[in-house]
Amino acid sequence: MDKNWNVATMAVQGAYEPKNTDPRVLPLHMSTTYVYDNCDELAKVFDLEQDTCMYTRLANPTSNAFEAKIAAMEGGVGALATSSGMAATMITFLTIAKQGDSVLSSSAIYGGSVTLFNTTFKNMGIEVIMFDQDASEEEILALAKPNTKAVFAETIANPAVCVLDFDKLSSVAKKLGVPFIVDNTFATPVLCKPLELGANIVVHSTSKYIDGHATALGGIIIDGGNFDWTNGNFPDFVEPDESYHGVKYVDNFGECAFIVKARAQIMRNTGMTPSPFNTYITNLGCETLHLRMERHSENAVKIAKYLKNHEMCAWVKYPGLEDDKYYELAMKYLPKGQSGVMSFGVKGGREASKKFIDSLKLAKLVTHVSDVRTCVLQPASTTHRQLSDQELIDCGVSPDMIRLSVGIEDVNDIIADFEQAFAKVK
Ligand SMILES: Cc1ncc(COP(=O)(O)O)c(C=O)c1O
Description:
It is a single chain. The protein is of the alpha/beta class and 426 residues long. It has helices at 7-13, 39-46, 61-74, 85-96, 111-123, 137-143, 166-176, 188-191, 235-238, 249-253, 257-270, 276-286, 289-308, 327-333, 349-359, 389-394, 411-425; strands spanning 78-82, 102-106, 127-131, 148-154, 180-183, 201-205, 219-223, 313-317, 341-346, 364-365, 375-377, 401-405. It is built from 17 helices and twelve strands. It has a seven-stranded mixed beta sheet, sandwiched between helices. Strands 8-9-12-11-10 form a five-stranded mixed beta sheet. The relative contact order is 0.13.
């Protein structure tokens, strides 16, 4: 792989380099275990001195190739594939924070992440302090505590479709001396590379655009290798890890300290590992990511404009619309496209929105977004139904909201489907 390749070439050919007579396509290594000729060599793997596979909970050749591809696409120094996007978020935070710590998170994030933070993390003694990402840098800084260990936000928020102000939040994280973690699920490295914009760690639900076909659940964590873990706030990165033969992550692994700790400590102890079959499938899907993101974004702008001008549409939020609150940030950070995800309401409120969804034919009602097929969902009654009214408002979710994920079909067929559904709501 040539490090200078553009993201599209990385998506197609990154990481897997077949030698003479090897299979052309990245093979599926569906094996839990690996053979070694002698004990000393295997011992080196256990001591993290040799970078080969010994057990699939920790590493697998198919998953490793996929990890190397996504790390290259994001511009990171290493990556760790996980069993789901939730697992990626969980492992990332557990690598950095422990009982008695706190982290700062935007409130405009995926509902599942809100629940993880406000219940599971709370029960584990990690406090998540939520902030309004439209607040000023000073207001967000004022919420931090001496035990704050990270700042977290999504490039394009699900489902509020706010665009992240990278300059502002990376400055907050720098002033606090903590890593800036970005969930880049909706933008993907094709539309935005957070590590070039001040982020230190990137997470994805690969179940979304990276797979792109709604076939394989998965997640991935990418280490930017650009955070100074020796700044005094992260003794666990500097002092010996007694759970792993006293390894010192910064001393032994330098710029890869975070991703090695995530794998050797948290992945090893929790086993949130993807099946090699899932990384195999996801890698195949990823080979067309650059083409799909282009078409998703192109179709979405057309649909957003159509909705905006429709008499039955109460409101539409899409950062690619010129009068959208986040248009300026979108042009600054997502100039190549703003993905296929948007939200809108149907005149008549919650019931009218439900009737619209029930009347669609081509677009399906599914608990998913960001695959090749157009789909819809009403967050208040589904993905976000565990949240309180206040949490719903904080996440930018209104009762009538329809979250729309525009696919890569012919846009005229999507519009025709919407027309017949609007006609039924009238
Ligand atoms: C932005 C974002 N992050 C994380 C997740 C969780 O990912 P998964 O469903 O793969 O666990 C999702 C799922 O919708 C998401 O949209």
